[in-house]
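Schema walkthrough. Field components (list of strings):
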Amino acid sequence: MIEVKDITKTFGKKQNVFTALDSVSVSIPDGASVAILGKSGSGKSTLMHALSGLDRLQQGQVIIDGQDILKLKEKDVDRFRARTIGFIFQSFFVTGSETTSSNVSLPLEIAGVRRGDRKRRIDEALKAVELTDKAGNRAKELSGGQKQRLAIARAIVNEPQIIFADEPTGNLDSTTSEVIENLLFDYNKTKGATLIIVTHDPELAAKCGMIINVKDGKIDSVQTR
Amino acid sequence: MYICINPNQLKYRFYMNISDIFIRAGRNLRESKARTILTALAIAVGATTITIAMAAGNGGREYTNNIVKSSGDAYSLSVFKQPSTPEATSTTLPEYGVDTESESGQNDMITNKDIESIRALNGVQSISPMLDVTSEYVSRGEWQKKYVAPLSVKADRTKIDLAAGSLTDNMVAKGQIIISEAYVGIFGFKSPEAAIGQALEVTVAQNSKDGSKSSQLKTFPFTIAAVDRKSDTNLYYNEAVRISSEDSQTIYDFQSGELAAPQYYGMNVLAKPGSDVVELQKTITDKGYQVYSLEDQREQLLQVIDIAQWALIGFGALAVIASVFGIINTQYISVLERTQQIGLMKAVGASRKDISRLFRYEAAWVGMLGGVIGVFIAFLVTLLNPTINEMLDLEAGTQLLKMDWLASLGLIIGLMIISVLSGYFPSRKAAKLDPIEALRTE
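Field assembly_structure (string):
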């Protein structure tokens, strides 16, 4: 259960102040598939940053499993992200010079998983995204779709409770997009993890069980199916 | 309280494993090979200079010790009476024939009493007085040609370079004689080897009562035990025929004839092997004698080497300081280049500590690489020892540059530490990066 209570985020000072999030409150049940839908500049990315603890807001509460992550020390927020959250980005952010398996290994290393356990988990994650045969290849040799599949493997390798996907199909063609979407929704259903997709695409949002419409830093409406 | 839901989380630790960071740091460096190597080479310049300085100091010290060892016996002390300088504080000198102490020479001689007092000291093995023995001539026999050759006494175990023959403990036995290689041909030997075991006679004139030479001669027979020659490492070689202290005593006894109580211009004190020579030297000096030892000269030479070595190390240190700025610069560029990677790592939960460690370990790698390259180049330079020997006309096998591997290892570790310290600011910049800014899609 993710509960957001009255969060506000402003940029700039005095005359140039810009309110990216304005007293936003929303709650997301465990295991839901959620789309944060909005145009660029609507505050949807800022909301994602707030939910994931990347942005440390001054006002409001972000309660995950009963714990207000805004009250945690920086070190503990890092640990919380390492254990609980997986990220997928529009630009993949895979390290091209490293091998596929090394990319997937990163979150495990950061979370301090023992070396003996890593290989099995990397293999499982790569198998889930059908990249087993590319394990030894450098990430820069992969196609766009393969890179995003690699990013998914990296996001799920720690078996997180929550996956954030920021415009996951924004840089991909429609066929590849479908593959990526299927992978994300499959993981959401089979593992019961909460999937939060940030997108401006109403079609993708329509595939989610819950749609949070964001407009001008406020939640316009919440639809559930 | 944060609730652990994932059972695997029980296996989690708090921070990234140090070896994982180290491996990632190394991998990052391999990605920018040219930059890494260039930065490392800058460090290597200083490392090479310092290592060569250490090798030169090491080799120089050893070479000095060798020279000193072959120039004299470390356990041998030359002891003389403190020259009597009557009224040393006055500004006038005693006038000859007028002042009572004008016969000052008498006071400077060593007597048997002096010898006995020194012999009683701890650590003294033997004492041989320095006898002023001179030969009239040296020949192979009564009917052979007679040559005027300098007669000298081998009173200590100073190592000498032999062309032929052998010595026990670097000493001449009673009845034996050593001749210089230069004399071999003069005396009519075909080769140094041919001279060994041959007879040689030393003829001495006896002094009269008034100290002048009388015509009374005596011939002392010897067997040639060895032929010596000059070596590069011997500082004080002079060509002579050398006899033992015992024989010189016999010759002296004859030569001094009816002179009064024996007096010597000095004495050679041999300390017991393994005893504290420096301490003995101090004790004898305190008793009012002038003492000369090889240790004095060795220390002077070593001081010169130390000064040269530290000057060179100073230059190397300057080069290292210059390379520090190279490391800082490279690291800053690296942080800029990898902004997204750092952002991703932070998003995935890497702590500030993890990130700054990553960059500091990269710096450590560069420092280590520079150190290893530098030490290796210095090692290659030490391989030029034979060429250096040839150029300086030194004995073959001399190692003027001698690697000090332990110090080199220390240097590499030191450079790693310096690199880590110089990576402080760039790594702090990386650790402070805002992941949201770093991951903003362009």
